[in-house]
UniProtKB/TrEMBL annotation:
The chain crosses the membrane at residues 6-32, 52-78, 90-109, 121-139, 145-166, 178-201, 213-236. Belongs to the cytochrome ubiquinol oxidase subunit 2 family. Pfam families: Cyt_bd_oxida_II. This is Cytochrome bd-type quinol oxidase subunit 2. InterPro entries: Cyt-d_oxidase_su2 (IPR003317). It comes from the Bacteria. Keywords: Cell membrane, Membrane, Transmembrane, Transmembrane helix. It is a multi-pass membrane protein. It is found in: Cell membrane.
């Protein structure tokens, strides 16, 4: 595999993560309220929150596998690009990691103990962390452009689009709509990733490791990629079927 092939793989891995985890982020951001038929908002009851989290729950771990794989490619194949990105957007990257950890903690801990105070407290953490995670991810993309204005704009776009994407995936999983809205929001959420990859392409490819090392890592990729694809197929099968009671047991 040459530098161009690795860059394409990195883009695909990041795109896979934003589609899967973007639905979780958007659902987390709107966990406490939803739009009603009159166009306003109403507060979700605890049982409803479990249902919407169960709708996107199967996407959480497979999505994080895509992210870990993308980080591995960035660090292992494009170390200069990774160092440049961290130098430019270190505070954003730290915020992203912290909000990622808190978001996951909120998802897994909200139902581990009885009591409304415990659950509602973690639900607030989950909402705030989901919004910050989406915004910091968009800002990190903007940092790759080397522009503070791009970081601000893409941060806002990421928060808005992830909310739309989460709503679309939940509506599809609950069979309120067909898959088309989720497909449209998937394209919307991937567009900034592709645009950033195109803009950063010359610097990314030029900052790769030696061709010999890329070829050696290519062997590892051929082993890891089938596992990632298998998890993607599993996630798709879980989401494509109707939501059942067991899907909400862990949330």
């Amino acid at each position: 595999m040459n530098a161009a092939a690795w860059a394409v793989l990195l883009t695909v891995l990041v795109a896979g993560w934003v589609v899967l985890d973007g639905a979780v982020q958007g659902t987390g951001a709107t966990l406490l309220q939803e739009r009603d038929h009159d166009g306003g908002y109403r507060r979700r009851e605890p049982a409803e929150r479990r249902v919407v989290l169960g709708a996107v729950g199967p996407l959480l771990l497979p999505g994080e596998v895509w992210l870990v794989a993308a980080i591995g490619v960035l660090v292992g194949v494009f170390p200069h690009a990774e160092a440049e990105l961290l130098n430019t957007g270190r505070p954003v990257a730290i915020t992203l990691i912290a909000s990622w950890v808190l978001r996951d903690a909120g998802i897994w801990l909200r139902s581990r103990r009885p009591g409304r105070i415990w659950r509602d407290g973690w639900d607030v953490v989950l909402v705030v962390a989901s919004i910050v995670l989406a915004g910091s991810w968009g800002a990190l993309l903007g940092a790759a452009w080397g522009s503070g204005l791009a970081a601000l704009a893409l941060g806002i776009v990421a928060v808005v689009v992830t909310r739309l994407h989460g709503d679309a995936v939940v509506a599809w999983r609950l069979r309120r709509t067909g898959p088309l809205p989720a497909i449209v929001t998937s394209v919307m959420i991937v567009a900034p990733v592709v645009g950033t990859a195109v803009a950063a392409w010359p610097r990314l490819v030029a900052g790769g490791i030696s061709p010999e090392a890329m070829a050696s890592l290519g062997i590892v990729a051929m082993v890891v990629l089938p596992v990632i694809l298998a998890l993607q197929v599993l996630a798709w099968r879980l989401v494509a079927r109707p939501l059942g009671r067991r899907d909400t047991l862990f949330f």
